[in-house]
Model the fold of this input.
Amino acid sequence: MMKSPGRRSLRHSLADGLRDRVVAGEFAPGDRLPGEPELARSLGVSRSSLRAAIALLEEDGLLRRMHGSGTYVTDRPLLRNDLSRNFGVSSMIAAMGLEPGTVDETCVAEEASAEVAAALGVAEGDAVSALRRVRTAGGRRVVDVTEWCRLDVLAPRAMAAVAGGSIYAALAERGLTVHHGVATITPDVAMGEVARRLAVPRGTLLLTVWQVDSTADDSVALASREHHLADAFEISVYRRGPGGGGEDER
Amino acid sequence: MMKSPGRRSLRHSLADGLRDRVVAGEFAPGDRLPGEPELARSLGVSRSSLRAAIALLEEDGLLRRMHGSGTYVTDRPLLRNDLSRNFGVSSMIAAMGLEPGTVDETCVAEEASAEVAAALGVAEGDAVSALRRVRTAGGRRVVDVTEWCRLDVLAPRAMAAVAGGSIYAALAERGLTVHHGVATITPDVAMGEVARRLAVPRGTLLLTVWQVDSTADDSVALASREHHLADAFEISVYRRGPGGGGEDER
DNA sequence: CCCCTCCAAGTTGTAGGACAACTTCGGTAT
DNA sequence: ATACCGAAGTTGTCCTACAACTTGGAGGGG
Done:
């Protein structure tokens, strides 16, 4: 039938549409959705596709299906900062209702550290593009971000053109849409340059997020390190299982 | 057709089976799986159910489907500690190849703090069951865990019977299988009692995980706070999107 | 020999219908 | 009032067919 939005797979478009309707409040938490046959008819798609879309949202924890009963909206209010979905610091800040900003932005070509080199698949010491900036929320410095790219992916000049915007958007314009990433979280304290950039005393508690982003074909597009002010915002994760990952649990 | 394992929905059983075969190495990272029709026949299920199972694993980041080409195993090596799936500290420790242990275990009824009360849905100051213990990995103290329950869910006596085991198992025996949870992560430093229990100097960096676990019908079953030693193990998260959650990204 | 085009086979994506398994709720008999 | 039963509605699974897409190889032209 209709095939208006983008050309991602139909079930993803359907899932997005349903997600929007849920967050818009059309279906309140705890409500039961219309039956699949009816909903599929009203959307002009087959029940198969609709079910695939619902499965995505169920996996996200937004919906919950009960055999013989119906499909319900989860009671859980939307996570303030769901680390498994929200991408980009500015969207996290915006999600809290604060005005995102950028200061102290510098962009250079630098030699890759061992860690960065391993992530980007280059040799240690090779030149890579690096974009460093401090993100502000309502004028307050909250995150110190450094992002690294291979030179052939985004030259320093192109990286500098990002200018306060999202580097994901710049990559997407070059046909490199980030599909997923793996983030590692460690506690930390502000020292030296980081403390100065964030304008906090040495020893201030930080949450450091080291992340490697890849495209749909698993090629690494971006590596980044974010130093978050501990009290700036909460970082949450929706955890599934157990029961989805094998029966260990001694 | 056959319906051997458990009686969770078929697609979840299929997903578990496939996941096991992948982690067992039957399909190496980058490999292409057999076609859906063939795989469905060999498993004795319909292609619809198989597709639903594959969709789950794709959402987990384990598989990747490409229209017209095939279904591939993700290159990403299995995350050491995927916070969005691994449940329970002992399984995290076991996943690292270390021997999990428990020391300093105490179980009492105590008055609920404001935070605990809000999570469990009781009034502040009401009595709740509390289980506190230190988890060890290979003999080293790595996590200080406190878990709270409503009295009618798990009485202190029943909670004490857990004795070094998983509280999830104890809950499951009472028909309360934990279906999902929401974890909030903050950096922290060891102070006072926590430092003493973990046998580290004051000021040692910690990663604190506050978590609320719920059953399939969204009723809260358990709240917990874990103080992780910063250098004990890495905590990682697989992040999907962007493109799955609406087009913000200024 | 190299390169380009085109086609055929194989793959995943979607459609649509049928039935099974399950829940819910109201009616009915006890 | 209570227990039982059944009809209606819902999600779960199966089946077949076709559309959309990718891949690789055959074949021809340079």
Observations:
- DSSP finds eight helices and nine strands in chain A.
- Residues 1-6, 244-250 of chain A have pLDDT under 50 and may be disordered.
- The radius of gyration of chain A is 21 Å.
